[in-house]
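RECORD TYPE: inverse folding
INPUT: structure tokens
STRUCTURE:
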């Protein structure tokens, strides 16, 4: 085995040398891929290498905030800011002990100033509180010279309206029924696979994102991180996965109640495949779990119910934030400075047996509350049942709340959640778009649903792979007759997010910045600083320069790699995913057998005196058996390789690319998921 390890080391060393040579020849190299992965594992997802810089160069700009509709917040509902400080300092994570993240955009967003250069406002508010969009079109010469970026919108579905508006503002070219030749950007409404024949350009979905963000998988990914970094990941409610953890759930609740009979905890049950509040209900006892025919519990996540949310106007609300994952390798994350707050329509009371079934009191989903007689459609962004998040921050700030702290906690939550998802996303990515094969690069807008607790701590509720980008809402014009009418709040937020996502993905910008980025990286490699520093330098200059003279400032703020240093230590599982992927490359196989698993354990340095290789063998048998029976979509994991796998692992046939529809995706992903969810508790002892 040590021979094998030596061989792997030599091979990796050789690959590194090839990469270094390539860099010297001007080939694009990713600094982050080097900086984030241990020296002996320099895995790089080549497909994403070209996206190695940040294109956003503009400063954040304001949105005017003046509004006469603010109602006074009931003092009881808002926490005392000093109390909030002491609360939030308890149990602070390592990250929050570090200097606070600097949120440039927020302050300006709230002050409502116009940018110093007098250029465009993304949205100005009229005196009646209506939002209106102004894109200053001063027709810069550079923009005119460039070939218009082409966007295939044929699969955009419900995001079409907002997308069309964005393309118009950018003066790009739309292809509503597709195009025979390749487009620069493909906008999919549902998944990466909406259109199977893309071999170049960029697609707005990552393979595997929908799967990873199903409630069970998200819970698993975050729980793995909770086991490794309990304090850092305490923003996610304690969760159990049903039906497999039903016994565990029942036992834990029984013990809790036995210890203190006055306790009346409440739990929220969410079906795995549900969305928009569908099938969600509250319980106070495991016996209340609803069953389906055959007395089997549905696949679901059951969670601690957050009993003390922050209230505004006595109502519970949540926050929808849009997050752009611009690239996985290197990891680049942007957060929209503006989001939406969705309000319940019945005054909140802490859960009791009487009110458990009051959905308008406990669930903030727009799709549910819109059917309540109390739902308020408003043209103002700061009143009604759907408001901008900045209007909430504004209101909190006026009560003395430290909103910078709230924002920095939210940013930390977003970065940590994406870090939890990335390892498996990379495995999906490589399975769908193997390195060296033609295929597009990917980016994706995610919808983060966040609840603020009474003490202002943000709690992650869920992440949506396909957040609604509709900019109109259903309006009942007469009983039973509905029509779609524009929603100013949705338009303000969503068009900005789509337009600025497109700007960041502009191929011309990308190329230009990639070159700059590589130069900085090369410099850093020849003694000019570390690759990590290179990222920081480059990002800073991008933000200063301003992206395009003729457009509003970016509403998307880069948060990663900007804050790389603060979060780097959390990227442990990702390194192991890199080893896993590298290992598959070396062996030319799509899944790990028992021997490979042993080598994998060694490479990850997971074995020691208390965890022998014999234990690794037992673990392998255990997890393959367990996983095989656990999830319907994972049923092949742990079984013998299929003919398909055998063909590709024993011959030199090139693996089909995603567009040939023949890639067998679940096994590779499941094998990794099996290992990392089962084996990572072990890693804790190696921290
Ligand atoms: P869905 O995808 O169906 O919208 P969510 O996880 O977003 O599922 O839950 C729906 C709503 O239920 C949320 O918007 C929130 O109002 C409420 N909710 C979800 N989880 C919790 C929780 N752990 N504590 C309190 N409220 C919650």
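DESIGNED SEQUENCE:
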């Amino acid at each position: 085995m040590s021979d094998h390890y030596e061989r792997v080391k030599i091979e990796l060393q050789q690959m590194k040398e090839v990469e270094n040579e390539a860099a010297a020849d001007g080939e694009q190299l990713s600094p982050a891929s080097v900086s984030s992965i241990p020296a002996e594992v320099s895995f790089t997802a080549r497909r994403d290498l070209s996206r190695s810089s940040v294109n956003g160069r503009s400063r954040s700009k304001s949105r005017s905030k003046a509004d006469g509709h603010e109602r006074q917040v009931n003092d009881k509902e808002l926490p005392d800011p000093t109390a909030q400080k002491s609360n939030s300092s308890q149990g602070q994570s390592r990250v929050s002990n570090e200097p606070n993240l600097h949120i440039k955009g927020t302050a300006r967003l709230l002050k409502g100033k116009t940018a110093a250069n007098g250029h465009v406002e993304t949205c100005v508010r009229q005196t009646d509180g209506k939002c209106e969009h102004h894109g200053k079109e001063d027709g810069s010469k550079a923009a005119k010279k460039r070939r218009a970026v082409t966007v295939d919108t044929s699969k955009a579905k419900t995001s079409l309206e907002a997308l069309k508006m964005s393309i118009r503002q950018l003066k790009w070219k739309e292809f509503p029924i597709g195009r025979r030749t390749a487009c620069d950007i493909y906008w999919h409404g549902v998944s990466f696979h909406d259109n199977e024949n893309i071999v170049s350009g960029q697609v707005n979905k990552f393979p595997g994102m929908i799967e990873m963000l199903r409630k069970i998988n998200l819970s698993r990914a975050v729980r793995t991180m909770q086991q490794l970094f309990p304090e850092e990941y305490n923003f996610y409610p304690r969760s159990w996965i049903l039906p497999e953890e039903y016994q565990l759930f029942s036992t834990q609740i029984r013990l809790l109640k036995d210890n203190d009979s006055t306790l009346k905890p409440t739990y929220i049950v969410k079906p795995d495949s549900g969305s928009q509040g569908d099938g969600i209900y509250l319980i106070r006892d495991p016996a209340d779990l609803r069953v389906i025919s055959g007395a089997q519990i549905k696949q679901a996540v059951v969670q601690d119910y957050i009993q003390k949310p922050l209230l505004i106007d006595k109502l519970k609300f949540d926050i929808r934030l849009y997050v752009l994952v611009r690239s996985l390798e290197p990891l680049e994350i942007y957060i929209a400075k503006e989001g939406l707050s969705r309000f319940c329509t019945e005054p909140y009371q802490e859960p009791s047996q009487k009110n458990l079934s009051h959905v308008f009191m406990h669930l903030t989903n727009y799709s549910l509350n819109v059917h309540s007689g109390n739902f308020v459609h408003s043209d103002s962004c700061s009143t009604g049942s759907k408001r901008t998040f900045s209007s909430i921050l504004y209101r909190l700030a006026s009560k003395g709340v430290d909103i910078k702290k709230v924002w920095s906690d939210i940013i930390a939550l977003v970065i940590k959640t994406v870090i939890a998802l990335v390892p498996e996303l990379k495995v999906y990515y490589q399975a769908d778009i193997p390195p060296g094969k033609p295929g597009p690069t990917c980016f994706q807008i995610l919808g983060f649903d966040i609840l603020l607790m009474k003490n202002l701590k943000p709690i992650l509720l869920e992440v949506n792979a396909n957040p609604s980008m509709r900019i109109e809402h259903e309006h009942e014009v007469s009983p039973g007759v509905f029509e779609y009418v524009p929603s100013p709040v949705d338009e303000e937020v969503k068009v900005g997010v789509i337009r600025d996502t497109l700007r960041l993905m502009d191929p011309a910008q990308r190329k230009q910045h990639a070159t700059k980025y590589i130069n900085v990286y090369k410099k850093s490699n020849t003694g000019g600083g570390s690759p990590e520093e290179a990222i920081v330098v480059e990002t800073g200059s991008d933000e200063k320069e301003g992206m395009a003279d003729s457009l509003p400032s970016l509403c998307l703020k880069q948060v990663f790699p900007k804050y790389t240093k603060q979060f780097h230590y959390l990227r442990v599982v990702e390194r192991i995913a890199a080893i896993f992927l590298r290992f598959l490359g070396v062996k030319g196989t799509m899944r790990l057998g028992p021997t490979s698993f042993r080598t994998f354990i060694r490479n990850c340095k997971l074995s020691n005196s208390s965890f022998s290789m014999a234990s690794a063998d037992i673990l392998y048998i255990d997890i393959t058996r367990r996983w095989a029976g656990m999830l319907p979509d994972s049923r092949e994991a742990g079984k013998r390789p299929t003919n398909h796998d055998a063909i590709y692992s024993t011959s030199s046939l090139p693996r089909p690319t995603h567009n040939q529809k023949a890639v067998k995706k679940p096994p590779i992903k499941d094998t990794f998921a099996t290992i990392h969810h089962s084996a990572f508790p072990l890693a804790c002892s190696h921290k």
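NOTES: The pocket of adenosine-5'-diphosphate is lined by residues 237, 268, 270, 274-278, 280, 303, 305-306, 318, 363-365, 449, 451, 461-462 (CB under 6 Å).
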